Task: structure prediction
Amino acid sequence: MSLRVNGGQERLTVPMGIVFAFGYAIAVVVAADRLMLWLESRGHVNWRRTGRKVLSASPSARLDSLFDDPSRSR
Result:
């Protein structure tokens, strides 16, 4: 009489668990990437865009001019 319950397949349990864990992790990362790309196409986030922002498009007002009292400048 043998003490092996699964017919000798208990040796495959640990490696297959590792394979399934890596497969699940890869699936989660790919799904998150696709979600972020979809959100980027809608304009909600910057995900995989390349290049730098155009600094000339940013506001050119100085910070201290925003807090000046308007009655002093006239």
User: Anything to note?
Assistant: The mean pLDDT is 77. The longest helix spans residues 13-41. The radius of gyration is 29 Å. The CA atoms of residues 61 and 67 lie 11 Å apart.
